[in-house]
Write a structure and sequence with these properties.
The complex is a heterodimer. Chain A is mainly α. Chain A is 71% helix and 1% strand. Chain B is an alpha+beta fold. Classes of the chains: A mainly alpha, B alpha+beta.
Chain lengths: 393, 238
């Protein structure tokens, strides 16, 4: 009887989680309705900061959706058994986060009702248009990949599907980086470093999200992750965090070396108020250094420490994206190099931005979509990693 | 027998008349809606030459004319549209100060057109860069890509629009070089309004035009020429 009541309370908890997630999605839907009705005037975005908080959420979700598949690739492409056991969960998370991210991106459009135009009028030179294909292709490929894993008769195709997903997600994150890399006139963007930087960032962010979800699923099933597996996972997370910090540092160092980029770097790293604070404290310290300590410090690195590290990496991701996307637009566009400029259109001035509640509602709505897809799928299908009794590789 | 025939002819005549009356207004409206359907010619390249020496600091005549012509509110808040703006610039070393109007530069290789996912941003054969308000989904990528910050996003519901210049909430817009006036043989409102004749408008390809001769006889520059976008708007005295 005791068992049954435990089961009932788990059941109740499941529905409570669904209700909470649903509520946050509703909040997002309300924000969309309000922005649709009143226009973007009720958001904090303006003619200088044209991409705001929704884009921070959307790009995090899309980049992490690609990076989380790393777990699957290490299993399917490189044949590591403990990762292979986690490939279905990684694929599910990828689909869930891609759905959430794309929902935010699409619903933030000025005319979301015209989304079909993006499919019927295709501009071959637009990296946005390429991404429409890359995102929908990724969706389909990951679903096929899941099918080859979960349906025994499809198993023979698993390796091929895994390889296709592996290649596709590299192209996809390259596409996400190119959105910014192609903006030649903006000081913050227009760098060929951005696509590889986004790829390495995606590794860290995707693995961090994976770790948080995996820990929740193990706790839900009252299981403990094998310490040997945890050890390998946390070391991998550590390597990815170091790698992404390296890419971000390289991006800033190259900028600092170019005289014409120095004022921008000083703004982002020293003088820009909220931006340097978020960069140093949010991204570098909380998002990188503290997680590295939690992972590698002798005596730390236990399950709770790794969980905290993963959560901090996610937090750092939001800090970095805020600085990158909004800070990058806040710094004045250099239309007249060598001149001091002023106008009624904020030329030569740092652009102001205060995100409104609707932007947060929309962003969290996207997170909640990913959460709901994951929760329901984990409940109705078997995504619990099935490890073999011993680790062979 | 002949009686029946007369009736039939009468019936046919009346029917034809009724059909003509029914169709005629439609045809007329169709013509009105489509206006002159002559396509823009690629032998033309509309452009401007702006003489900054003639442009007075504090004078906003071009901006006001643009606002009036295109039905803009004229407000300059962070979410208000500004198709043309006056910029005051001062050289950091010499202190040389200049006032000039800045608007869509109607590039030959416009980044906004490259990045637009739906082909809403497009360049007409005669070099005018426009936004198709029916195709724009409001992603604002063009605003990110424009090196001149020439574009604005419509943040709220619009009222009292100029029928010649349809605009729409949730879409991006910019200087159209007063394309509706050009197609009627007139010059852009800003060029017409400038009392100091600082804005010279014309066909950069027409060897007989004043702008063609002037571009060849005076020193003028394109803003951010390093980007090699070949803007149709040139500035003199910078």
């Amino acid at each position: 009887m005791a068992d049954l009541s435990a089961l009932r309370s788990m059941n109740r908890l499941y529905y409570v989680l669904l209700a909470l997630g649903g509520l946050v999605v509703l909040g997002g839907a309300y924000a969309v309705h309000m922005m649709e009705h009143h226009g973007h005037i009720i958001s904090g975005m303006n003619n200088q900061i044209v991409w705001g908080m929704p884009h921070v959420f959307a790009i995090f979700l899309i980049v992490a959706a690609s990076g989380v598949l790393n777990v699957a690739s290490i299993g399917s492409v490189f044949g590591k058994a403990i990762y292979k056991a986690r490939a279905p969960l990684a694929s599910l998370l990828s689909i869930a986060m891609l759905s959430g991210g794309l929902a935010v991106l699409m619903l933030d459009l000025g005319r979301p009702d015209r989304i079909i135009v993006a499919a019927t009028n295709y501009n071959l030179t637009s990296v946005f248009a390429w991404n429409v294909v890359l995102y929908s292709g990724m969706f389909s490929l990951v679903i096929v990949y899941l099918w080859t894993m979960m349906e025994r008769r499809m198993n023979p195709f698993n390796k091929a599907a895994g390889l296709a997903v592996f290649v596709w997600r590299f192209v996809l994150t390259t596409g996400t980086g190119l959105i910014f890399a192609f903006l030649t006139a903006r000081q913050a963007y227009g760098s060929a470093l951005l696509p590889p930087m986004f790829i390495v960032l995606s590794f860290a962010w995707g693995l961090a999200v994976f770790h948080v979800v995996q820990a929740a699923i193990y706790a839900w099933n009252e299981k403990a992750l094998d310490p040997a597996i945890l050890q390998r996972k946390k070391n991998l997370l550590g390597v990815f965090v170091v790698g992404s910090l390296y890419m971000v540092a390289t991006y800033h160092f190259t900028n600092m070396y170019f005289a014409h980029q120095q004022s921008f770097e000083l703004f982002i790293l020293r003088d820009g108020g909220i931006y340097p604070n978020l960069f140093w404290w949010g991204y570098v310290v909380l998002g990188n250094l503290v997680p590295l300590l939690l992972i590698y410090m002798p005596g730390l690195g236990k399950s709770k420490c790794v969980m905290a590290a993963a959560l901090l990496v996610v937090l750092g991701a939001f800090a970095l994206l805020y600085v990158f996307i909004i800070g990058g637009q806040a710094f004045p566009l250099d239309i007249f190099p060598g001149y001091e400029v002023s106008s009624s259109f904020a030329d030569g001035q740092i652009a102001g931005y205060k995100p409104s509640i609707y932007e947060f509602l929309l962003g969290f709505g996207g997170l909640a979509i990913a959460f709901l897809i994951t929760t329901v799928s984990v409940r109705v299908l078997n995504f619990m990693p099935q490890d073999k009794p011993y680790i062979s590789d | 027998m002949s009686d029946i025939n007369t009736q039939r002819r009468q019936f046919l005549k009346t029917s034809a008349g009724a059909a003509a009356i029914a169709i005629a207004p439609g045809m007329m409206l169709y013509q009105t809606a489509h206006g002159d359907t002559a396509a823009a010619s690629s032998s033309v390249r509309w452009g401007m030459l702006i003489d900054t020496a003639q442009c007075k600091e504090g004078c906003n005549d071009c901006v006001n004319a643009c606002n009036k012509e295109n039905g803009l509110s004229g407000k300059t808040g962070v979410t208000d549209s500004q198709w043309i703006r006056k910029i005051e610039i001062k050289a950091v070393g010499s202190g040389h100060a200049v006032s000039l109007p800045m608007m869509c530069q109607h590039c030959e290789h416009p980044p906004c057109v490259d990045v637009c996912p739906t082909q809403a941003s497009f360049k007409r054969a005669d070099g005018i860069v426009l936004v198709d308000r029916h195709l724009c989904i409001g992603c604002r990528y063009c605003m990110m890509a424009c090196p001149y910050k020439a574009r604005s996003f419509v943040h709220e519901t619009l009222e009292d629009q100029n029928p010649d210049v349809p605009r729409g909430k949730g879409t991006v817009e910019a200087c159209s070089l007063c394309v509706h006036r050009i197609d009627k043989g007139q010059i852009p409102a800003c060029a017409e309004a400038c009392q100091n004749k600082a804005i010279l408008f014309g066909d950069l390809n027409d060897a007989n035009s004043e702008i063609y001769k002037k571009v060849r006889s005076v020193a003028s520059v394109q803003i951010r020429a390093d980007l090699r976008l070949n803007p149709g708007v040139r500035y003199q005295g910078l």
